[in-house]
Amino acid sequence: MLALFYIFIVVAIGVSFWQITRIMNLRSSIATNKDNATQGKLALAFMAFLYGMMIYCLIFMNVIMLPESASIEGEHDDNLFDITFWLIGIVQFLMQFLIFYFTFKYRGREGQKAKFYADSHKLELIWTVTPAAVLVVLIGYGLWQWNNTMDLSDDKDAIVIEVYAQQFRWDARYAGEDNTLGYGNVNYIKGINTMGVDMTDKNALDDKHVTELYLPKGRKVHFKFRSQDVLHSAYMPHFRAQMNCVPGMVTQFGFTPKYTTEEMRQQSEVIEKTAGINKIRKEKGEDPYVFDYLLLCNKICGASHYNMQMKITVVEEEEYNKWIAEQPTLASVIK
Amino acid sequence: MSEHHHKETFVTKYIFSQDHKMISKQFLITGIFMGIIGVFMSMLFRMQIAWPEKSFSIIEAFLGHHQTDGVMNPDIYLAIVTIHGTIMVFFVLTAGLSGTFSNLLIPLQIGARDMASGFLNMVSYWLFFLSSIIMVISLFVEAGPASAGWTVYPPLSALPQAIPGSGLGMTLWLVSMAIFIASSLIGSLNYIVTIFNLRTKGMKMTRLPLTMWAFFITAVIGVVSFPVLLSAALLLIFDRSFGTSFYLSDIFISGEVLHYQGGSPVLFEHLFWFLGHPEVYIVLLPALGITSEIISTNSRKPIFGYRAMIGSIMAIAFLSTIVWGHHMFVSGMNPFLGSVFTFTTLLIAIPSAVKAFNYITTLWKGNLQLNPAMLFSIGLVSTFVTGGLTGLVLGDSALDINVHDTYFVVAHFHLVMGVSAIFGMFAGVYHWFPKMYGRMMNKTLGYWHFWISIICAYGVFWPMHFIGLAGLPRRYYTNTNFPLFDDLADINVVITIFALIGGLAQIIFLANFFISIYRGEKATQNPWRSNTLEWTTPIEHVHGNWPGKIPEVHRWAYDYSKRVDPNDDDSDFLHGEDFVLQTTPLLDGEEPS
């Protein structure tokens, strides 16, 4: 297969060179009306190709896309995205039609004269005001949603979790009974205290260090992000959530999980996508894939950036309470 | 400047030339060579993305100790991605595009003997050449070239412990960029001064071709924003070499706590994107200017809405300096800032839409001469629209959260600034090749070049939007560790095949370009029957551009197909032909357009 590929490339290059020298001997440089006719038709053909590809992707790539938002806050993201996507989709189809159809329609011909048409304030006003009006809607909805998502001030009973990044792994720290994280800084990193928690801070004693996230369904989660070395980005695509982890500062993000992992696995879009993935995995002889929420690193952070992930499991509140109770506190681990 | 009897040696004519036409060719050829490197790198990393475990002898041959049995190593993958971005954005689309066409066209289109300072112009080129050489040398450093992404965010770019490329490779990157910025600034100042002061008699600002407006505004943005990148780079050098803490704080790496206290990487992001976003327009505006000129000439019609075009260039330029934060919605900066930047960012859609509609209206009822330059210009409008529209997703902070740094972004900016700008550059080369070399490029090869390029451009970047929407982060060496992304593998193979064909198709252009220099058809003085001043100069270059007096300008640049009776499309052309040189005086009773 590979050898064939190389042979193909060599042949292609050889043929190209032969053709190029042949064509270079045709000393023609300026488009004639015959060229205009050919190129005009090619513009139409290209438009057909472009439309075909755009429609094909829109229909058949639907299955690979992320399923509906798994967080309550993300619902409006999906909404806004749908509105925006329909809008730009329609404009895209119209504009590409105009571009390539005009190229065909007005291709240079014998005896054809161009119209002298330099200006029209009316037209220009139309295409200044129309985008502006549309933008008012997009900006308005977008900003409302942005403030919704980013405003974490009134979530008194949110669960506080620290997500901690380093080359090339994720850790997490639950705030424990008091729901307040103990102070952390790289200067406290020592031995098994890998997240640099200040153990003299009494808020830290009941904190719990884990390597996988468990979240209760329906409770707001308030994430605090830290990084100990370079920039990382905590990307949780299913929840429409992302925030950079910046050394030297604490960043934050919050959302409310809407479906448990189990519920998500039963969701039709997820079933379809998983089936597609498993078909491919079966052909390659790999183990079947089961859907899980993930946290990925999405800011270039070094050689193994491509393999920095943490599993997220969303469960019902009782199960979460049970799980969190089983996790040891820092005070019991770090002596 | 008017007497030119001094003897030219080989060195003063071809190497240390102060003639803008020669300098423009030097920029173009250097840009093309850097472009070959940049495109070749993209082909290498696309092969890695499509066939992550496959062994390729080409990778074995080129990557030396950075590969194992024909498979590239993860850190060199990041290095190649980084250098691809750096070279394409700065060396090809900034210096290669602006350097070539600003130098060639500014004196010719405004009616000047040369740039305001020929000497500084020469310095600008040689600084660019030097920075190119240093960037190329950095590829051969033992630990590999800079690998922190073309945005070189610290701390990754500051700490060799974090990635091997942040050692000597990164130092050379910074030195190269500092020299590059100096080159760019000197060039830009020269362009501004020249356009302000050396216009010929009658060439009012409102009679300038849109190319001139675009180059002028581009130079202004460059002067405003490049110094900020220079300071960002200098502070990064301080952090790296002299132990300061502008960008670094609280770092624990390789088992020890570093001494840095109180800095913030977010500061670097602000400084970087204060250039980085205007940079998009530094790359794009010249291409749009070139396109305006070529579409008008080849449609045999005035550009529609000349004043609106100038207005939108200015609006884009102004807005471009106050939107940088949209690259940082999830950087941890105050969400309120995110709101402001969302607002300013989405406003850019308005002047951009005006430009796109004006291009389309220029095509409407034209008599389109579909030369290769024209096709590339039309292709630019197409990719500019496609890429621009997805900007409405990315510019909206709420939506950006989930597509930030995914392949959706890669698809967006490659279409809107990468492909568009490179199409503008190709259009310019095909159109002004006769002005540069006195010969024509072959149109048949031009057609092949265009159609293969645009099909591959869409074949690469349209499907890429969807793998981005599937949540695939960019800059991943391989996706095989995520079963979640297994169903994207086939699409990545298709994208890579399009990329390889598209990359190889550029050989057609290279062959056409270099063979035409020597064997192309001899050009006539005004092959495209254009209105602008550069076509009044002799085919053989003379120092000082016009052998006698510089011609006087009497009208704007777009009197194509002007009629005896402006309201009657069937009436005869006012000047007998469908074009009127800017130097033609107004007839008795002729209304200036």
From TrEMBL, chain A:
Instruction: Cite the SUPFAM superfamilies for this sequence.
Output: Cupredoxins, Cytochrome c oxidase subunit II-like, transmembrane region
What sections of the protein cross the membrane? 6-21, 42-65, 85-104, 125-144
Q: What is the lineage of its organism?
A: Bacteria, Pseudomonadati, Bacteroidota, Flavobacteriia, Flavobacteriales
Q: Does the keyword Membrane apply?
A: yes
| Keyword terms, alphabetized | Copper, Electron transport, Membrane, Metal-binding, Respiratory chain, Translocase, Transmembrane, Transmembrane helix, Transport
A molecular-function term among this protein's GO annotations? cytochrome-c oxidase activity
Q: Which GO terms describe its biological process?
A: ATP synthesis coupled electron transport
Q: Which cofactor does it need?
A: Cu cation
UniProt subcellular location: Cell membrane; Membrane
Cytochrome oxidase subunit II transmembrane region profile domain sequence ranges: 58-153
Q: Please report a single Pfam family linked to this protein.
A: COX2
Family membership, please give it.
Answer: Belongs to the cytochrome c oxidase subunit 2 family.
**First-listed, main subcellular location of the protein, grouped into a coarse class:** membrane
Name the Gene3D superfamilies on file.
1.10.287.90, Cupredoxins - blue copper proteins
Which InterPro entries does this entry report, sorted A to Z? CcO_II, CcO_II-like_C, Cupredoxin, Cyt_c_oxidase_su2_TM_dom, Cyt_c_oxidase_su2_TM_sf
Its name, as the record gives it, is Cytochrome c oxidase subunit 2
What membrane topology does the UniProt entry give?
Multi-pass membrane protein
Q: How is the cofactor bound?
A: Binds a copper A center.
The job of this chain, per UniProt, is described as:
Subunits I and II form the functional core of the enzyme complex. Electrons originating in cytochrome c are transferred via heme a and Cu(A) to the binuclear center formed by heme a3 and Cu(B).
Catalytic reaction equation(s): 4 Fe(II)-[cytochrome c] + O2 + 8 H(+)(in) = 4 Fe(III)-[cytochrome c] + 2 H2O + 4 H(+)(out)
What organism is this sequence from?
Answer: Polaribacter marinus
UniProtKB/TrEMBL annotation, chain B:
Q: Say yes or no: keyword Cell membrane present.
A: no
Coiled-coil regions in this chain? Answer: none
Quote the subcellular location field of this record: Membrane
Q: How does it sit in the membrane?
A: Multi-pass membrane protein
GO MF, one annotated term? heme binding
The protein's superkingdom reads Bacteria
What family does this belong to? Belongs to the heme-copper respiratory oxidase family.
Q: What name is this protein filed under? A: Cbb3-type cytochrome c oxidase subunit I
